[in-house]
Design goal:
alpha/beta, ten-stranded mixed beta sheet, seven-stranded mixed beta sheet, 49 helices
């Protein structure tokens, strides 16, 4: 199809004059039978978690993976992969070889170009071809290829690629499979065919750099394939250098540039190194540039090579046809492997080049392929670039002569005049197709880099047809998304000309989301995409099905699998043979999984009516009825559900968060209404997934993203709190309907967002809840005094919160009055009055209310409980030390009652679930609290001690247990310090130090046991008393650390009376081994040394290490203790907020009241709005709007900080310096180029002036009227420029009638440039071929050849003689009917009757050839039927003649042409003929050719001539076209 490499003419230019030989190639005979190996063309399955079961893995592969997500194959051994690849190659790919040797020019060389020794034995003297002359089509055959595998280039870097030797007849589909399935290349989003000069040429440094940078950028950003000739010369070498520069500057392997070289096998130097019938892995290829002779070396910077073999040697250009077919095959593939949509776009990039390149450009543009010409690269590229900006009529033969001479130099002398004429015609046709031609000029700023020019050329080519304007814009947008080029979309697509509706962009939005193109998502939102219209339930469900492989998808797959299995078990349905069928994601599954991640305390964010069951039909009638009933209920519930519950911003944000996509989540978060809840929910979900996931790297990324959104929530709340504290606190405790009816505060606590909770605004709310209705600024001592003497609360001794509000309102009123009295106007005070509309209704608290508020304050409850606890400990101590009798006393009984009330309170805390956590969650939270563990431990010990104490035998043991239990109760007393701002953080430090000390004891125990056992073994011989062994081996060494040095290791302090000789005295230790003189026998020096070493390590080293550890822990935790304390403070406040007001033991009364209320009376618990508040709809909307305003303010502040950051300033400065440098270089080059142009123009004017002066002199010398004659006015071939004005005057020359290739034939027209079209212009070299189709035998009069001179095309020359494909010489008459009607009685839409060809998918006006314009075409009789045909024939005289005359038809010749008459017949909607036409339209639907009513519109897909006629019909009926 496309851009062919310039090898037809230019390939010979690169060959040197000297001949060179190549090494003979030994070709092995390859077996003809094909291996029956199985082809591995399976689609890659998505990655699955190894923990999934078989069914769950199948769900993962079936669920979301209808999009064929790319993942990894199961690991196969390299040897097996090579064997399967070799088998596939031998099955599908062949080479070509000569099997008939005939001596050529040289004695040892065949006419195929190969040496005699390179032929197989049977080719030397073949019996089958005796007496025949060598023919490449007959004597070259296909055999399995023997050159494929991996190629390794020698030299620096050791670059490797893949290669295969293929036959010229290889199917392009096989090559595409080789590239995509065997070589594992991802299908391209763009195909760049680089063509041009095949010999080395010079590029200016700036143009070279821009070409390299632009080509690589467009290939990298769009995922393009680059196709070249693959050799190390000319334009191919420049492409290779660009790939090399990218490889050196990039460390990313994923962004590898795909550069495919399609070269001729017969011209490759050192190709024998690539031959191996089993494949080379790798083949070591040596690039010998100096010794290549007339051959060429492969370029070592290309990544893949297709070496095209036609069985000959030394012939260039063999690969052109196969390369063209491959490019056409690729261009017909759908973009992104979709079933529908646009095809893979192709662009041709041209550098330098000769006549062969001109043919390549011409053929490419005829096939609709856009071309980008690089001005300044040389030769034909510069010729086209110079004429691209001028009218076609000024591109004359002489101008092309001048440009060819200028840019080709000495090579121009070898060009014949006929070739110049042909090239002129082709260049005129090229610049006439301006929508396919883009010239990249270095001196202009409009294009920027080459990559922008390439993409702009593709987009420009897609919006040429007026009837496909909307489709063109859609195609451009889809291409831009596939390329991920937002810059192109902004400048070329979303312009003022294009007007987009939200619905027009939905498909693009879906592609951008699924393709992970966040910049495009943002751009589409900016250009009018409405998320509410786009993100309906079906679209959202489809997005979840298209999720990439991630942790959430695996969890979702497991949930879907379990749900399906449970439904099958419920209905008694057995599993199907194909378990992958029938599973489908529904929003109910998503809702359940999200609720699991958020926590069971939340409600489902999607209603249960979204559940859809997709069970297979084979399950039976039960599944069908189930599906129908669910769908019916879904429809009814969907009607009842209010539209306000939809939150598309939240849905999109959640979809992005669960796949851990930061960029998309950031864009979606900006669209969220409830942004602070969304950020905290995202933090909770991400942390939960990070904790449950097994991938450490993925978990770390989730944790980072969770922290990021915690910062977002902090930033928004900080803005809110600084603006309005009261509203900010409402945001913290309001129940969010979009996030499961939970609150921001609860989400932050569940997500362990300590930084968020530690903010001053959150702590102010907690402090306010802690104080209850009391004012926050009340001193503690006043509260304590009022607890004992409550009448003081009526004296103002203690301030209540409402009193403060009333006082502030009074002060504000005074301020308003003062302002009004000073200004005399109420306008200045209106805003102050509107700030607090609800405060006027506040009334002072009553006497009883004040008393209730005092004792129900969590702060007061806490103080009473402290007093109660101290009293309990005092009573406990008194009982243990003074009043512990065999029969329990009154004090002891009171102690037991008191403990029973404590037990009741613990039970209430365990089962009290106001937040709806559920018992399991509540029990987990209860156990995870250290203080609750101490409570349970103390109660259990007390109960055990009490049981023992009531038993006579275990009375004392019971007392011991109760004494130990007293210690536990005293430790529990530390909990009272957690509320203290000073001591609370220190308790956290103590906890951390206890953990450090616990692990330190393991290290210390090693030294203690080591020294103790050694000492005990040396001093004491065979002591069998366990208590004394432990005392000597562990206890005494441990006490030694604290300064209690042992006396039994020193003989001087030995006293035989202090020990027992045989260890019989249980109160004395056993004596050490004694000598005869009754002194210890152990070596004293050894025990003293051991003690010193032990003290050195244990007392000095380890204890100081423990101190250092404590110091490090203190320093490390000190900065975080305040934050941790603020976070843990919530639970204490929450506990005492829900705790009954009476302290133990009086709390038992409250417990009885709660028991009777909830169990006996079954009344619901009283709701509190302190921690969770459901706001009215109006207030909710107002609060969310205000939050959105604060979010925008926060984002603006964040963006401003980023702009002002040092890193951003450095980047901006570097970018500006680069821009200035580029502009200076561009201006310098443009100035020099402009100077050269001016000098050339001045020189040209001087030459013209000299000629004019010479003519004047010659005229003056002559006599008579010669001086008044005009010089050389005769129009000849030698003076073509004189026709310039005439050409510019008439721009109506036919174009289609001068196409090179005559339709449906192999005839090529003689080239007729624009200036030679008129018959009046002399054209001595004009020799058109003769052609008359054999299909038509009619002639005008007598012999056709004699009658040619009687008929001359009125529009001028066409480049072909005879009647061509037309039926007769002279005018061939046709009639086109435009039958119109009004669609309705209001005449709103004008319609016309069109003929649709189903095979070609085209529309046309009904018509055809006629002998006379007063008759309808006979061809319409078959389509319309005889009756309708005759009725229309009768109305033919009523038709209005819209157009009559010559038509620029591609079938026209010099002696035969088409003349058309267009008639408009307007029909009445109520007429009989309209009824007949409508019947024909309905009956003909589905046939190959049918009639259809179409709207008269500019979007109608007709050819240009018929579109012009239809436009005139629209004007005739006063309708806009």
């Amino acid at each position: 199809m496309l851009p062919l490499q310039d090898l037809t003419a230019d390939s010979l230019e690169m060959l040197p004059n000297s001949d060179s030989k190549i090494h003979p190639q030994t070709i092995e005979q390859v077996q003809q039978q094909k291996l029956g190996t199985r082809r591995f063309h399976q689609r890659k399955p998505p990655e699955t978690d190894p923990s999934l079961t078989m069914g769950e893995a199948e769900v993962v592969q079936t669920l979301a993976f209808s999009t064929s997500r790319t993942s990894k194959h199961l690991p196969l051994s390299p040897s097996f992969q090579r064997y399967s690849f070799a088998s596939w190659i031998k099955e599908n790919v062949c080479k070509r070889e000569c099997y008939f040797y005939e001596k050529g020019v040289r004695d040892d060389t065949c006419k195929c170009g190969y040496l005699k020794t390179s032929h197989v034995d049977e080719a030397i003297k073949p019996e089958d071809f005796t007496g025949e002359a060598w023919n490449r089509h007959r004597h070259i055959r296909e055999v399995p290829t023997d050159a494929f595998g991996e190629i390794s280039f020698s030299g620096l870097g050791q670059k490797t690629g893949k290669y295969a030797r293929v036959s010229t007849d290889t199917s392009p589909e096989i090559l595409y499979q080789l590239l995509t399935e065997q070589w594992k290349l991802s299908p391209p989003n763009l195909l760049i065919s680089v063509t041009g000069g095949a010999k080395n040429f010079y590029l200016k440094a700036r143009l070279k750099n821009m070409f390299h940078r632009g080509l690589i950028k467009v290939a990298q950003t769009t995922g393009a394939w680059i196709i070249t000739g693959g050799t190390n010369t000319g334009v191919m070498k420049h492409v290779g250098q660009a790939v090399r520069d990218y490889a050196l500057s990039s460390s990313s392997i994923q962004g590898q540039i795909v550069a495919i070289g399609v070269a001729t096998w017969g011209i490759i130097h050192n190709r024998e190194d690539l031959v191996n019938s089993e494949g080379c892995f790798p083949a070591h290829y040596v690039m010998d540039i100096k010794g290549q002779g007339r051959l060429s070396c492969l370029d070592n910077n290309h990544t893949h090579f297709l070496l095209v073999d036609d069985g000959t040697h030394g012939h260039y250009g063999v690969e052109i046809e196969l390369r063209s077919c491959l490019e056409k095959c690729i261009s017909e593939k759908r973009l992104g492997n979709k079933e529908r949509g646009v095809t893979i776009p192709v662009v041709c990039v041209v550098l330098d080049g000769g006549p062969g390149t001109l043919n390549t450009i011409y053929n490419a543009m005829l096939n609709g392929t856009p071309c980008v010409i690089l001005e300044g690269s040389g030769r034909i590229a510069d010729v086209i670039a110079h004429v691209a900006g001028i009218p076609v009529t000024r591109v004359t033969i002489s101008l092309i002569h001048q440009l060819m001479k200028k840019f080709f130099g000495q090579e121009y002398e070898r060009f014949p005049d006929l070739k110049i004429i042909e090239w002129t015609k082709k260049i005129q046709d090229i610049i006439r197709m301006s929508h396919l031609l883009t010239v990249f000029r270095v001196s202009e700023d409009s294009h920027g880099d080459v990559d922008v020019a390439i993409l702009q050329a593709l987009l420009k080519a897609s919006r040429t047809n007026e009837s496909l304007v909307y489709e063109g814009w859609e195609r451009q947008l889809e291409l831009a998304i596939a390329w991920n080029r937002v810059d192109i979309a902004e400048t070329e697509i979303f312009t003022e000309e294009s007007q987009w509706k939200s619905s027009d962009l939905h498909s693009a939005m879906f592609s951008a989301l699924v393709g992970n193109k966040p910049e495009f998502v943002s751009l589409l939102l900016e250009n009018g995409v409405s998320l509410r219209d786009f993100l309906d339930e079906d679209t959202l469900c489809e997005l979840y099905k298209q999720l990439p492989s991630c942790f959430f998808l695996r969890k979702l797959a497991k949930r879907v699998h379990n749900s399906l299995r449970s439904r099958r078990q419920a209905f008694g349905i057995r599993s199907r043979a194909y378990p992958g069928q029938g599973e489908s994601i529904s929003m109910a599954h998503v809702s359940e999984e999200v609720r699991h991640l958020l926590g069971s305390f939340t409600q489902s964010i999607y209603p249960s009516c979204s559940m859809t069951y997709h069970l297979h039909v084979s399950i039976g009638e039960t599944s069908e009825s189930l599906s129908k009933s669910n769908l019916d209920s879904q429809a009814s519930l969907r009607e009842e559900s209010p539209d306000e519950l939809r939150n598309p911003g939240r849905d999109l944000f959640l979809w992005a968060i669960v796949q851990n996509n930061k960029e998309l989540a950031e864009i979606a978060w900006e669209q969220c209404r409830d942004c602070m809840s969304a950020a905290l929910a995202a933090s909770k979900i991400l942390k939960k997934m990070a904790a449950e996931g097994k991938d450490a790297d993925e978990g770390e990324e989730m944790q980072e993203l969770a922290n990021h959104y915690e910062k977002h929530a902090m930033g928004v709340f900080s803005e809110c709190n600084s603006c309005d504290e009261e509203r900010a606190q409402k945001l913290l405790v309001r129940a969010s309907p979009f996030w499961g009816k939970t609150t921001c505060l609860r989400l932050a606590l569940e997500a362990d967002d300590k930084n968020f909770v530690a903010q001053s605004g959150v702590q102010a709310l907690l402090t306010q809840i802690w104080c209850g209705e009391l004012a926050v600024d009340n001193p503690v001592w006043r509260v304590l005094v009022c607890m004992l003497f409550f009448p003081l609360i009526y004296t103002g001794f203690l301030v209540f919160r409402r009193d403060g509000l009333i006082q502030r309102e009074a002060e504000k009123k005074e301020e308003i009055k003062t302002v009004e009295s000073v200004t005399g106007s109420v306008l200045h005070t209106k805003s102050l009055r509107l700030d607090s509309p609800g405060l006027d209704q506040l009334k002072p608290l009553g006497a009883w209310t004040r008393l209730v508020c005092l004792y129900s304050s969590p702060q007061v409850k806490f103080y009473w409980n402290i007093v109660s606890y101290f009293a309990f400990l005092a009573l406990f101590a008194v009982v243990l030390m003074i009043d512990f009798q065999a029969t329990p006393s009154v004090a002891e009984i009171l102690l037991y009652i008191w403990l029973f009330t404590l037990v009741c309170e613990e039970v209430r805390q365990l089962f009290h679930d106001r937040d709806g956590f559920g018992f399991r969650k509540k029990a987990t939270m209860y156990i995870n609290d250290l203080w609750n563990i101490l409570d349970v431990l103390s109660i259990v010990l007390f109960i055990i001690g009490l049981v023992f104490r009531l038993t006579t035998e275990l009375f004392y043991a019971g007392k011991v247990l109760l004494c130990i239990d007293f210690v536990v109760f005293c430790l529990r007393l530390m909990a009272i310090f957690t509320i203290s701002r000073t001591l609370g953080p220190k308790i956290i430090i103590v906890k951390r130090m206890m953990m450090d000390m616990f692990f330190f004891m393991f290290l210390l125990s090693i030294w203690v046991v080591a020294y103790g056992v050694a000492k005990q073994g040396i001093l004491i011989h065979n002591d069998n008393r366990l208590d004394w062994i432990i005392r000597g081996a562990v206890y005494e060494p441990y006490l030694t650390i604290f300064g209690n040095f042992p006396e039994n290791i020193d003989n001087a302090a030995f006293d035989i009376d202090s020990c027992s000789m045989n260890g019989t005295d249980p109160l004395k230790p056993k004596c050490p081994v004694l000598n005869e003189n009754q002194t210890p026998a152990f070596p004293e020096w050894l025990t003293i040394i051991m003690l010193c070493v032990y003290l050195l390590f244990a007392n000095i080293l380890l204890l100081n290490l423990l101190i250092a550890i404590f110091n490090f822990t203190f320093q490390e935790v000190q900065d975080n203790t305040d934050r941790i304390w603020k976070f843990q403070r919530y639970e204490l406040i929450k506990e005492y907020h829900s705790r009954p007001a009476a302290p133990p033991p009086f709390i038992i009364l409250s417990h009885l009241y709660l028991f009777i209320r909830s169990i006996v009376l079954r009344k619901p618990a009283e709701r509190s709005n302190e921690f969770k508040n459901e706001l009215p709809q109006t207030e909710e909307e107002e609060l969310l709007s205000w939050e959105a305003l604060m979010k925008d303010r926060y984002l603006q502040t964040t963006q401003q900080e980023q702009i002002q950051s040092m890193e951003r300033r450095i980047l901006d400065t570097a970018q500006k310096v680069t821009t200035i440098n580029d502009r200076l270089e561009r201006e310098e080059e443009s100035d020099s180029a402009a100077l050269v142009k001016r000098l050339a123009r001045l020189e040209e004017q001087v030459v013209h002036s000299a000629k004019a002066l010479q003519w004047i002199m010659d005229t003056l010398k002559s006599q008579g009227l010669g001086a008044k004659e005009t010089p050389l006015m005769t129009i000849t071939d030698e003076s073509p420029d004189i026709l310039t004005n005439a050409s510019e005057r008439d721009d109506g020359y036919h174009v289609n009638a001068r196409q090179f290739h005559y339709p449906d034939s192999k005839i090529t027209r003689f080239p007729v440039p624009e200036e030679k079209v008129p018959w009046e212009v002399g054209f001595s070299s004009y020799m058109p071929p003769y052609y008359a189709s054999e299909d038509n035998e009619e002639q005008v009069d007598g012999s056709e050849s004699k009658a040619l001179d009687n008929y001359r095309n009125p529009a001028g020359r066409t480049g072909i003689r005879g009647r061509g494909a037309l039926s007769r010489l002279g005018p061939n008459l046709t009639v086109d009917l435009v039958l119109t009607r009004w669609r309705d009685s209001e005449r709103s839409v004008l319609e016309f009757l069109a003929l649709r060809d189903e095979s070609q998918k085209t529309l046309a006006l009904p018509g055809g050839a006629v002998d006379s314009t007063d008759r309808l075409p006979v061809t319409l009789r078959r389509i319309m039927g005889k009756t309708l045909y005759e009725k229309l024939q009768a109305k033919l005289t009523e038709g209005i003649k819209v157009f009559e005359g010559y038509v620029d038809d591609c079938r026209n010749t010099d002696n035969a042409w088409v003349e058309t008459t267009v008639l408009n017949i307007h029909l009445d909607r109520a007429s009989q003929i309209m009824t007949d036409i409508n019947h024909t339209v309905v009956s003909g639907h589905g046939s190959l050719q049918s009639l259809q009513w179409q709207e008269v519109s500019g979007k109608t897909r007709l050819n240009s001539t018929q579109r012009d006629s239809l436009r005139q019909v629209a004007e005739l009926h006063n309708r806009k076209f």
